[in-house]
Write a structure and sequence with these properties.
470 residues, mainly alpha, 8 strands, elongated
């Protein structure tokens, strides 16, 4: 064991010193002589034993472990600083991040020291969130889990930046399959699993709404605007002559939890959107007599449309009616009204009946935006045009959100190339290739051929006449 030296100070007190070599001299390249002093001989003897067993660095780490722990923050503390120091976001967004951390990671691993976070701890926390063990007790959807992992990744990056971690324990952790959030439990665009309606499904839903809200609904699905952008649209933002609207503002949360009107979600959210003819027709009577700052869409009694009221009194009842045929809606049933709890026929509103012509899916209001994008992509609209129309800041957001809707378009393109090869070769039949197309792709191809035939009709007619004369 290392020798423990006893030293007497000028005031008569005694200290105990242990000498050892640690580090290398930059000048000579030889080990440096250093020492540690103690007030108690027992502490000096213990440190001497650590030197023999653990070496200089191990002994020092153990000696100062308590002091090191005092200086290392918890994940809650790192997260608070990370969120506070984020730039380029609004206070409402910052408040949302704080709440997201508190109800997810903060509840499960917030007290963990920043230097002790491991991949296993992260995996267990992810599984706990998926199983509904977060602060709210709800089982999160896949998209919500992705949002939570993104926030944790930012906090971990700060831990690495501060030197508390040397590697990212979040990297490579796979997310479990989240649950589909029920339409009657929440209607939050950030926690939604995407539902894209077909034209037939849209018509089934549209037909169940009260006349007052029909223009508003067709505006949402016809423009892809967010709810918060549509409800604050003003008369001055609409140019019916040019068939365009300008998105300049949106309804959002403030830092104190209140609803305020501010700029759109992203810089590219400030945009001009061309309107379909059907939406222009709907807007004309709504704009009559309104001043430039008046809202385009209002509640039946005037004023801004409230999301919660619209959802509970209009969207959810209309959705239930669209999911049930007349034969499955008893005479006295009130499940398809704004007061389903008063229904004396059913204790709980029954699920979709599944009959022909009814709606099988359960979309949320925000799914009208997804439906709009899906219709554009199915019609062959370039994805960068979809990005501009939706106001996504990055095209990567558009690709990540809607890439699964592109395979049919890719198949159509491949078949078009195949038809070109067959035509150039001068042999073979293109009919079997057309017959192999999916119904949606065949429908789009038929529309395209019809439009092109109409455009070329004089030339085609002349060619047919010449061929017939020959």
């Amino acid at each position: 064991m290392r020798k423990v030296e006893t030293l007497t100070k000028s005031d008569g007190s005694t200290t105990y010193r242990v000498r050892f070599r640690h580090g290398i001299s930059a000048k000579t390249g030889k080990p440096l002589q250093t020492s540690e002093s103690f007030d108690r001989k027992a502490d000096a003897d213990t440190f001497a034993k650590w030197l023999d067993a653990l070496g200089p660095q191990g002994a020092l780490d153990r000696l100062y472990a308590g002091e090191q722990e005092k200086g290392i923050p918890t994940l809650d503390q790192v997260a608070a600083d990370h969120i506070r120091l984020l730039t380029g976001i609004e206070e409402g967004t910052r408040l949302g991040y704080e709440r997201l951390w508190a109800r997810s990671w903060g509840h499960l691993i917030g007290t963990t020291r920043a230097d002790q976070l491991t991949a296993d701890i992260v995996r267990q926390a992810v599984n706990d969130l998926a199983a509904g063990k977060g602060l709210t007790g709800e089982a999160y959807s896949t998209k919500s889990l992705e949002n939570q992992r993104g926030l944790l990744s930012g906090v971990v990056a700060r831990c690495i930046e501060l030197g508390h971690l040397t590697r990212n324990p979040v990297k490579g952790v796979r997310l479990p399959e989240g649950r589909r959030v029920a339409v009657d439990s929440i209607d939050d665009e950030d926690d939604a699993e995407m539902v894209c309606l077909t034209h037939e499904e849209w018509e089934a839903l549209y037909a169940t709404f009260s006349p007052h809200y029909l223009p508003f609904l067709r505006f949402l699905v016809g423009t892809g605007c967010r709810w918060g952008e549509a409800v604050v649209l003003r008369r001055g933002d609409v140019d019916l002559g040019a068939r365009t609207i300008k998105i300049r503002r949106a309804l959002k949360w403030s830092g104190d939890g209140a609803r305020v009107i501010g700029p759109p979600k992203t810089k590219k959210g400030r945009r001009t959107i061309a309107l379909p003819a059907e939406v222009v027709k709907d807007l004309r009577p709504l704009l009559d007599g309104k001043a430039g700052r008046d809202l385009v869409f209002t509640a039946p009694r005037g004023g801004m449309i409230a999301h919660r009221t619209f959802w509970s009194k209009n969207w959810r009842p209309a959705l239930w009616r669209a999911q049930h045929c007349a034969a499955h809606i008893p005479k006295d049933c009130r499940c398809g009204t704004g007061e389903p709890h008063r229904c004396k026929v059913h204790s709980d509103p029954p699920g979709a009946c599944g009959c022909r012509g009814t709606l099988a899916q359960s979309p949320r209001i925000h799914d009208l935006r997804h439906t709009h994008a899906s219709w554009l992509l199915a019609a062959g609209t370039p994805i960068h045009v979809v990005q501009a129309r939706l106001g996504h800041e990055s095209i990567q957001t558009t690709v990540d959100t809607y890439s699964h809707l592109l395979p049919d378009a890719q198949l159509l393109a491949a078949e078009a190339a195949s038809l070109a090869f067959a035509g150039r070769a001068g042999g073979g039949s293109w009919l079997p290739r057309v017959e192999s197309l999916p119904d949606d792709a065949l429908r789009h191809l038929a529309h395209a051929v019809s439009d092109e035939t109409a455009r070329r009709s004089p030339a085609i007619a002349g060619r047919v006449a010449v061929d017939g004369a020959a």
